[in-house]
């Protein structure tokens, strides 16, 4: 079965039809730039462009980079326009797409669900935490394969700072940090999350997962196993489609 997945990120809106049996894109993805400011209207236009590029008329699963409750209501908007807060995103996107069946899920939760089913978390029991490092830091926490939704561990306070402002990949770019310097910050962040949750496994997702060889060796003194995500930057698209299909770890 195929469902369309769209991943709304701080820099791009990307989507493709997803083959749910394989957990992979059925066609090459298409991407448009996220508008700035990333208002509901501007983002909805971007989503429409991506979906129409494929002439898709079936159900669409979307991710959102903030807390999403009930598959629809946006509760936080750390890296997009604040006017998203309390928006009914399902209604917004469905109207803009001309009545498609739409669901919305947090971006990191979507990536986590995809990694647990088809990637680095397959068959892993106990506590598994996926962290996505991008414009912000997203988190997805699983206990015996079941998602605890909307955990928002990227906003833990570390040394008086919101952790994502210090250790996201945007923080690396903005501060022109070397891999080693940035990895040192990631290490402190992981140590803090490990102190709170003692996971068996950390999965490192987001764009940096493709460059794991540049920084993972700098991360020491963490007891949990640390691995890069396997679906890399497609995990959000795949997870969004899985969520729309209802195969999302019980949400
Ligand atoms: C948001 C999370 C999101 C993460 C990654 C954070 O700023 O609060 O909901 O998952 O960024 O996009």
Automatic annotation (TrEMBL):
**Superkingdom of the source species:** Bacteria
State whether keyword Transferase applies.
yes
Q: Which GO terms describe its molecular function?
A: polyphosphate-glucose phosphotransferase activity
Enzymatic class: transferase
What keywords were assigned to this record? Transferase
Q: Does the keyword Transcription regulation apply?
A: no
EC identifiers of the protein: 2.7.1.63
Cleaved signal peptide residues: none
UniProt family annotation: Belongs to the ROK (NagC/XylR) family.
What's the protein here called?
Polyphosphate glucokinase
- Give the species this sequence originates from: Streptomyces pseudovenezuelae
**Source species taxonomy:** Bacteria, Bacillati, Actinomycetota, Actinomycetes, Kitasatosporales
């Amino acid at each position: 079965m195929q469902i369309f997945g769209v991943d709304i990120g701080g820099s791009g809106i990307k989507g493709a039809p997803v083959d749910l049996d394989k957990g992979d894109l059925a066609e090459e993805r298409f991407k448009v730039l996220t508008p700035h400011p990333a208002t509901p209207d501007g983002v909805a236009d971007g989503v429409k462009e991506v979906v129409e590029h494929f002439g898709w008329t079936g159900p669409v699963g979307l991710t959102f980079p903030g807390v999403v409750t009930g598959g629809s209501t946006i509760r936080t908007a750390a890296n997009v326009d604040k006017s998203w807060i309390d928006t009914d995103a399902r209604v917004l996107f469905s109207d803009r797409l001309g009545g498609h069946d739409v669901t919305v899920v947090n971006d990191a939760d979507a990536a986590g669900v995809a990694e647990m089913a088809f990637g680095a978390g397959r068959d892993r029991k106990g506590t598994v935490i996926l962290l996505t490092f991008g414009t912000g830091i997203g988190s997805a926490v699983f206990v015996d394969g079941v998602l605890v939704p909307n955990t928002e561990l990227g906003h833990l306070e570390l040394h008086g700072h919101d952790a994502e402002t210090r250790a996201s990949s945007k923080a690396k770019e903005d501060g022109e940090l070397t891999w080693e310097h940035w990895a040192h910050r990631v290490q402190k962040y992981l140590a803090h999350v490990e102190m709170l949750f003692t996971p068996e496994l950390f999965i490192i997702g987001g764009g940096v997962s493709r460059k794991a060889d540049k920084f993972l060796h700098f991360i020491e003194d963490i007891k949990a196993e640390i691995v890069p995500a396997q679906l890399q930057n497609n995990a959000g698209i795949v997870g969004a489609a899985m969520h729309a299909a209802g195969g999302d770890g019980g949400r």
